[in-house]
Write a structure and sequence with these properties.
Belongs to the peptidase M20A family. The protein is built from 14 helices and twelve strands. The strands form two sheets. The chain has an eight-stranded mixed sheet with strand order 1-2-4-3-5-12-6-11, with helices on both faces. Strands 8-9-7-10 form a four-stranded antiparallel sheet, with helices on one face. It is of the alpha/beta class. The longest helix is centred in the C-terminal third of the chain and has 23 residues. It has two domains: 286 residues, 3-Layer(aba) Sandwich (Aminopeptidase), CATH 3.40.630.10; 113 residues, 2-Layer Sandwich (Alpha-Beta Plaits). It binds zinc ion (2 copies).
Length: 456
């Protein structure tokens, strides 16, 4: 419907609306000031100097997609590149493909962290652009390292290589094992695109969840095989149980809030045949919601769909869910995000959206509950329909233009890192905002499947 002048608000109401909008602006914290030209120049020069090496590293990862926990080649490429760039490499974790690259200048400074992801998806390769995330992390660490040295800033830059984001909860495990304990703040970036025209070039959403919490589960159905023609009554059909549960979830979906998601697949067996009643079937599901609590409640409701299907068909079931794969909603730190948005606009004319959210999920959400941190989203050119998790996006993530944009984002992250390490007032403001957020939301408890059941 086209709007017409008759739809306009009466002038006194409009005046009241304008007044309210103006008063709300007072609640927004002032835009933080920027870093010195000296810091900015050191960051930009250092990142420009490694651009070709970063492109080679990016392609080495992109062209050899590896799945969660098995990112062996990517890990080797990253460790080798970071060693050459003058970082100290360690891996104090239980995950063979994790790493920590550290550089310290002076004594007694704060610690700023970056995260590099580098896992791919089955069949579609680097369809989430984690090859780009990997080099954004490295380049940002290089830029911040250069600024510490050139401007004599005491502090430590720590790049954490985080495996298994597309499942497995690499960061959840690394948090538990203490790799984030000494960080004062942390940042990463994530590419997106292919969703159609957007009025912004990037995002750093604040004021609520920037992405949804996510929990997963698997259910195995055990029935009994039989001849499908001669004696079907002798069988207990595990596939029927999975299909019945799948259908029940589709009905449940009608009653969910718009921000909730539930999605999954039926996985069978290579032994399935059309003339044998299937004795085995498996479903693998995710639930998503604005908070971990709501996400676990939804998981309970979804599991009930499959429990009832098992009962109806006479199958027995095994439910499994890993606490490490419960991803928290992402809560970007406000001063870090606003400072990044301001800097990107000033330096590059980029419009960074600080309102809104994505209904995807990330284990970086758990990091945002552990230390003041933020994730910068950025758009890479990708045809409409070729968004994240499609083969088209994997192709886009390997293009020179995507690399160029990634290096620009790395500059922004490094500058914010330098600001945090060199500006005590800004660091204090960041910590204060984090403490306020934690006071409002409470600690993120390690949820378990049984807790999920107790929630209703
Ligand atoms: Zn993804
Ligand atoms: Zn991703």
């Amino acid at each position: 419907m086209k709007s017409s002048p008759t739809n306009a608000l009466p002038s006194e109401v409009q005046a009241l609306v304008n007044q309210t909008i103006e008063s709300l602006k007072d609640l927004v914290p002032p835009t933080p000031s920027f870093v010195s030209d000296e810091i900015q120049d050191a960051v930009f020069e250092a990142i420009d100097a490694v651009d070709k090496d970063m492109r080679a590293l990016n392609l080495a990862i992109h062209d050899n997609p590896e799945l969660m926990f098995k990112e062996v080649k990517a890990h080797a490429h990253l460790v080798s590149a970071l060693t050459k760039l003058g970082f100290t490499l360690t891996n104090p974790s239980s995950l063979p493909t994790a790493f920590v690259a550290t550089y310290t200048h002076g004594k007694g400074g704060r610690v700023f962290g970056f995260n590099s992801e580098f896992d791919a998806l089955p069949n579609v390769g680097h369809a989430c652009g984690h090859n780009l995330i990997a080099v954004v992390g490295v380049a940002a660490a290089v830029g911040l390292k250069a600024a510490l040295k050139a401007c004599n800033i005491a502090g430590t830059v720590k790049l954490i290589g985080t495996p298994a984001e597309e499942g497995g909860g690499g960061k959840v495990i690394l948090i538990r094992e203490g790799l984030y304990d000494d960080l004062d703040a942390c940042a990463m970036a994530h590419p997106g695109g292919g969703y159609g025209p957007t009025p912004f070039t990037g995002s750093a959403h604040i004021g609520g969840p920037a992405s949804l919490a996510r929990a997963g589960f698997d259910i195995e159905f055990h029935g009994r095989g039989a001849h499908a023609g001669a004696a079907p009554w002798m069988g207990i059909n595990a596939l029927d149980a999975a299909v019945q549960g799948y259908t029940a979830v589709s009905m449940l979906r009608q009653q969910l809030e718009p921000t909730m998601r539930v999605h999954g697949i039926i996985q069978g067996s290579e032994q399935w045949a059309q003339n044998i009643i299937p004795s085995y079937a498996k479903v693998s599901y995710s639930t998503r919601a604005m908070t971990v609590k709501d996400c676990l409640t939804l998981r309970k409701k979804t599991i009930a769909c499959f429990q009832s299907a098992a009962e109806a068909t006479g199958c027995s079931i095994d439910i499994s869910a890993k606490d490490d794969e419960v991803y928290a909603d992402m809560r970007n730190n406000e001063p870090l995000s606003l400072s990044y948005a301001s800097f990107m606009e000033k330096a590059f004319g980029d419009k960074i959206a600080t309102e809104g959210m994505t209904t995807a999920s990330t284990d970086f959400g758990n990091v945002t509950y552990k230390v003041p941190s933020f994730s910068a989203g950025y758009e890479i050119p990708s045809p409409v329909g070729a968004g994240n998790h499609t083969a088209g996006f994997a192709a886009s993530a390997g293009k020179p233009e995507a690399h160029k944009l990634s290096m620009k984002v790395a500059k922004g992250l490094a500058v914010i890192g330098a600001k945090f390490l060199s500006d005590s007032e800004f660091a204090k403001e960041t910590k204060k905002a984090f403490e306020k957020f934690k006071k409002e939301t409470g600690d993120l408890q390690a949820p378990s499947l049984s807790e999920g059941f107790e929630m209703l």
